[in-house]
Amino acid sequence: MIVDFTFKNFKSFANKCNFTMKAETDKNHESNLTAKPLRLSKARVIYGANAAGKTSFVEAMNFVKLFVLNSNNMMTNQKIQVNPYKFRDNFMQEPSFFSLTFIKNEIKYTYEFSCTRDRVLTEKLMAYYSAKPTNIFARTNTNEYKFLAEDDKFLNELKLKNSENKLFLATADTWNYAKVKPVVDYILNDIIVAFNLDEIWNAYFEVINNEGESEKYRKFCLEFLNNADLSIENFEYETKKMKDTKIDIFTEALLGIMEKSDPNLSEKLRNTNIYNFIISHKITSDNNSKTYKLPLQEESLGTINMFEFAPILYYVFKKNRVLVVDEIDKSLHPLLVKYLYGLFLNSDINKCNSQLVANTHDTNLLDLDFFRRDEIWFTERDFDKGTTTLFPLSDFSPRTNENIERSYLLGRFGAIPFIKEV
Predict the structure, then answer these.
(1) Tens digit of pLDDT for each residue in 139-177?
(2) In this predicted model, what pLDDT tens digit does every residue of 301-359 receive, in sequence order?
């Protein structure tokens, strides 16, 4: 579970952004929270005008994942793909900072680092095996390290294998340092970032299929879809390898490039399973019922989106993951968006306390009968400076009976576009 995420100097977030899943002291909607070891929310929703930084928040989380994932593959002097705030002089020299606090296997960790495009400047890992944090390692001035005393000899050998543009966390994981394994596993596997469902849902269905849970998934999927009033009787699918399907020119060219640089990866991708789904609808006319079938591609965009959500949600609820979604309302009715959030807030469905963080323009969710005041967040951009701030609704101390949607659209909380008269 994520506890806190803090970052600075990333895209429009020039100043420090402090985001938390920790609940405030009020007792409203206690069922929305986890009880142990901390009172954490299972959901957060983020609002803001267009170009106000909602997607940049998701991209900041994704950058942390990608940097940890790709760190060991970076060549010496290769640029770090961080994207700092650019509306100032010498922006390339200003470090960006990221800090993630989370709970994994009932242990709280804080991992943080700062970097420019050229090098990692600072890096630190703390583990809370007790109330007092244990400093696993600390890195300052790029190449100065301080290690946990009991592991000092081993880690001093590992630092020689690291380079200025790489994360020591990733290097230590590669050399099987046990104390960083849960941290790397959490960042890479427990946090799922979704910008486009089309790009990731097939992979999660592949995992479900490989684990022999396709029938359990079928039951979950049909219940999930039909509770959303999509009237799907059943589905079937055929499996083909990517190399046996017709792919677009761009993908073929990309695979060709990859083949030259990494033949093994190209071959692996060409052998990836592609699933073609056929959806069954039961149609009743003149007291007669008949089943008709359609390829998934011929369904409405909303139905396709919900169908693509299904394997991701099944995996998230089973494995206790954090799902971070950009534009969760894309092609979905407001009641379907509320339905998705409701699944995470329902303890009978979300038994592992998985978390959902998403941005949206759907003001239907601005409802204190559904969310707590600390679960609704806003991004606001200073258009003179081009900077973004992120803050919770609770900063405004709204009344429990206040019409939050109306107040938001009237501009009480900011984070809306100001349209000039034409």
Answers:
(1) 999 999 999 999 999 999 999 999 999 999 999 999 999
(2) 999 999 999 999 999 999 999 999 999 999 899 999 999 999 999 999 999 999 999 99
Region 128-148: mean pLDDT is 95
Distance separating alpha carbons of residues 225 and 161, to the nearest angstrom: 50
Crossing angle for the helix pair 334-345 and 301-319, nearest 10 degrees? 10
Pair type for strands 376-382 and 43-48: parallel
Structural tokens at position 141: 């001035």
Q: What DSSP designation does 419 have?
A: P
Task: Return d(Cα 289, Cα 285) in angstroms, integer.
Answer: 6
Averaged pLDDT score across all residues of the chain: 91
Q: Residue 115 belongs to what H/E stretch?
A: strand 107-115
Q: Could you give the residue ranges of the DSSP H alpha helices within 286-348?
A: 301-319, 334-345
- Which residues are CB-contacts of 388 (< 8 A; sequence separation ≥ 6)? 11, 12, 13, 14, 17, 52, 53, 56, 379, 380, 381, 382
Rounded distance between C-alpha atoms, residue 395 and residue 241, angstroms = 52
